[in-house]
Specification:
Number of helices: 14
Number of strands: 9
Distance between the termini: 53 Å
Strand content: 5-15%
Radius of gyration: 25 Å
Largest sheet: 5 strands, parallel
Helix content: 25-40%
Mean pLDDT: 85
Shape: elongated
Length: about 375
Amino acid sequence: MSSSAKKSPISPFKPRAMMRFEIKATVRDYARCARLAKLAGYDGVEIMGSEGHLLSQFSCPRVNERTDEYGGPVENRMRLPGRGRAGRARGHGPRLSHRVPHVAPRSGAGRQRVARHRHHRQGGLWRRAPTSCNTGIGWHEARIPTIATQVPRAAFRALTAKMRAELDIPVIASNRINTPEDAEDLLAAGDADLVSMARPLLADADFVNKAAAGEPEAINTHRATRGCLDLTFQGKRATCLVNGAAATRRSFVHLRAKNPKKIAVVGAGMAGLGRHGAGKRGHAVTLFEAEGSIGGQFRLAARVPGKEEFSETIRYFETELRKTGVEVRTGTRATRAELGGYDEVVVATGVVPRVPRLDGVKHPGS
């Protein structure tokens, strides 16, 4: 269902327009969720009204083609997003899309008008005025990147700063803020009151704890990939390219080994580095790498323009190897004699690329 029977480019299904009684039922559903969050002990809730989800499908004139009281002028289009029974939670606020020309002009005037409309209780839509406003960026189906690696970190801070000057409630910045340093710089400059993160916490669930402990080098930094998002759109469990334990944390508990072993890992590419978990369990792990540094072909990937942040993952593993006490022997090609004294040997040397049988394949210019 949607505001109108208009197909999205990223969905194979065409929705049908919601009927009035369904809209009212949705309002009640939001209110119930807010009450449950309050009972569960949460300090507040955020109303997801950005990036193309249901509420923004009502606020956006490009999608909303209704002719009743939920369509047309902004006051009507905001009627559903503004029916804030969620205000019964102690703290609540909307998340609005920025940099969407068909939602609001690039000048920001229309965007700020929408924000002020949601903040002030115009027409009695809000039972209680919002206590914050989050600045979501873009629209999921847009072809302009907003969360990919080619987008500079904290690239949309200027938009948040403009919004902050318009509102008298805390404004939250989001999108491409994946390190504590970036977040602190944004806050120190006065561009936002708070910082919102999503995928960085999927990459490392202990992000906040490590930052608070003054250990940013120990954070498994998110690399601005979007495989997790793509899987979510397919109705599958979100995974993370840099964190195999994402969304399955209880399945990756590192229990101490009752009988610690001596383990040799041959190869310090991504497969070999991932075996550092054995060190967390108390095993004595030695990592052999023929090259002079760890990372394998991952280092080559980090040299590709737009993928420089791959080096953050190597930095994370270097920190993890030190913390878990793994002995690293770079520039050392493991021999049968050296591996003879270990209880277990893990071979993670990668593969030899297949050379196609083509004329000229060995030519210096190929």
